[in-house]
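ping. complex inputs:
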Amino acid sequence: MAKVRGAIDVDKELCKGCGVCITACPTHVIELAKQVNGKGYNYAHMENPEACIGCANCALVCPDSVITVYKINI
Amino acid sequence: MATIEIKDIIKKENLVYGKTKILTDNIMHYCPGCSHGVTHKIVAEVIEELGIQDKTIGVSPVGCSVLAYNYLDIDWQQAAHGRAPALATATKRLMPDHYVFTYQGDGDLASIGAAEILHACNRGENITVIFVNNAIYGMTGGQMAPTTLLGMATATSPYGREVALHGYPLKITELIALLPGVAYVTRQSVQTPAAVRKAKKAIKKGFENQAKKIGTSFIEIVSTCSSGWKLSPVDSNRWMEEHMFKFYPLGDLKDSEKANEEDYKKYIE
Amino acid sequence: MGELKLMKGNEVIAEAAIRCGCDGYFGYPITPQSEIMETLMLEKPWETTGMVVLQAESEVASINMLYGGASCGKKVMTSSSSPGISLMLEGISYLAGAELPCLIVNVVRGGPGLGTIQPSQADYFQTTKGGGHGDYQVIALAPASVQEMNDFVGLGFDLAFKYRIPSLILTDGVIGQMMEKVIVADHKPRWTDAEIQKISGTWATTGKTKNRERHVVTSLNLESEKQEIHNHHLQAKYREIEVNEVRFEEFQTKDAEYLFVAYGSSARICQKSVELARAKGIKVGLLRPITVWPYPTVRIAELATKVKGMLAVEMSAGQMVYDVRLAVNGKIPVSHFGRYGGVIPSPGEVLEAMEKFIKGGK
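pong. complex structure:
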C-alpha cells in the first residue's frame, strides 16, 4: 500500500497566526508556535510533522496564502 | 526504513499546493483570519486556471477590499462607494471580450449601491459579481450593515439590531435571484477546505458564464469579520456557521444555461 | 469639408458625438436635454460606428459608467441638466482625481432645487469652482451657437485626452433647443485597440499583459504625503491649462469705453445690445469667454486699463461677475445684470442696465 508523507512550509514572517489552518488540518499537524514573528504573531508551524499527509487543507483555508504544501509517496 | 527528513519533502518537485502567480507579494492589510484573503486567493486561482490575466478587469469597491488592487496582479478600477456595477457595465460593454468582475462588500453592494447592483443584474450585464457578506462595516470600525442580523451588536447598534429601530436584515441575494437578467446566483462560504473548493467552483462558473454571454453571475460569499464581531478567527467561523447560515443559507439560488427571456415570456404569454 | 444641416443644439451634440468617433454615451433623461439621448437611440450608432449608447438607472450610475469606460481609454460622454449634474458631482470629483478624460454636457436649467426647466446660467460656480469635493478643475467650454455645440464635442474630447481631465460643455436650454444652420464634421472612425494603446497605453485598464505592470485607476492615496504630491501634480496641470487653453472672443472692443462680459446665450443677447448701444452712440463692446475655466483673466485685466467699466451679464444672480472683479482687481467699476430662475433677458433691458451702469458707475 502506497503511503504518503507531506510537509508544509509556512512563511512565518507573513503568518498572522489566525489559526484557521489548525482546525482545517485532519491529522492535527499544526499548532501556533510559542515564539512570535516580527509582527508579534504566534505563527503556525508543524508541531507533529510525521502526521502530515500533504492534503493542502491548511493552505486552502489560509487567508494570507503563506502555506506551501509538499508531498512524497513512500 | 530510513527516516525521512522534512527537507527531503520540501522540494520543488514535490509541490502540491502553493500561492498562485496572480496574487502579488504585497502583504494583505486584512485582519488575521479575514475571509477576504481566501476569497481573493480563489478569484486569483480561477483567473490563472482560465488563463485570462490579460483579459480580466477587476472593479474594487469602497470598504475593506478597496485595496484589492494591491493583491491581484490584473488591471483594476477602483469605484466610488457602491458604484462598481456601473463601472463594470461600461467596461464590459466597451470591451465585450474581456472578463469583468466587481468585488464588493455588503455595505457597498446592499446599502449605498443597491440601485446599481439591481439594475446591472436586471440588464443582464455579462459580468461576475463577487459579494462578500460579513454583515458589518469592517473598514469604518464595525458599524451596522444592511445585512446585520437581528440582535447582532455593532458600533451603531450597540444593544443589538432591533426591528423597530433599524429594520430587517436585507436578503439582497434573494432579490437578485428574482431578476430575469441573472444567469447564476449562488451563496457560498470559505471557512472550511470543502467550502473553499465549492466557492472556487462557483466563481469559476461565474467567469466561464461571461464567455457564454448568458447574463450576470452573482456569487455571495458569507464571510466573517473577527475584528468587527469581536471574536477570534476560529470562533468567528463557528459563529457564522451557527447564526449566519440560518438566515443566509448556502447553495445555488439560480443556475440557468439558456436565455433568460423565457422568465419574462412566461408571464405575458 | 463637412455637411450643412439645420439642427437643434441638443441634436447636434448627439450627431457630433457619433461623427467624432465617440465610443460610448451613458445618460439619464432630464429636461431640457433629453433630445441628446433620444437622437442617439434613433440613430443607432452601435450598428454603424460601434458606439455604445445606454440609458442608465440614474445620473449617479451614468457618471460612474463614464469612470469605467474612461478607465479603458475609451471616448465616453454623458449629458444632463443642473439637478442631474448635482448628482454627478461626486463622480466628477473621482474622474478628476483619477485623471480620466471624458466629456460631460450640462444643459443648464433654473434652480435651486427642482427649479424650472427654462434656461439659466446659475451652474457657473458649480462648474468652475469645483462643485464636488477636493481641489480639482474641469475644462469648461461655453458654446454660444449650435455650430459651437457641434465643434466643442470634438474639442472637448481633444482637450480631455491631451490633459487627462474631464471636459464639460456648459450650455443652456436656449442653445440646446434652438435650431440653426450648422456644418457637421465628416465621420471620424473610433479609435482602434492599437490607437488606444498608443494614446492611453501607459495607464488604461485594457488587460495586464506580460510585458507591463498592472494598471490601477484610482483616486485613493492613504498616505497624505503621496496625496499631496498628487495634488501638486494636478495643480501644475491646471496652471499649464490656464496658460495654454484660454479661449475667448471680442466684439467691438477696439474703441469701446464700456464692456459687456458674458458667455453662452447671454453673450448672444449682449451682441445685440452692443449694436443697439452703438446706434445710440454709446461705445460699448463685448468680451465673450469661450472657456469659462480656464478664464480669460489676463485679457480682462488688459481691457481694464482701456475701458471705463465692465458689466457682467448672466442668467444668474451674479456668479461669473466674481471672476471679472478678480481680474479687474479694483481698477475700474464692475457690476452685474442678471435675470434668473429661467427668465431670459432681452437686448433692450440689457442695454438699459448698461446705460444705468454708465450713469451711476455701479
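Chain A touches chain B through 34 residues (CB under 8 Å).
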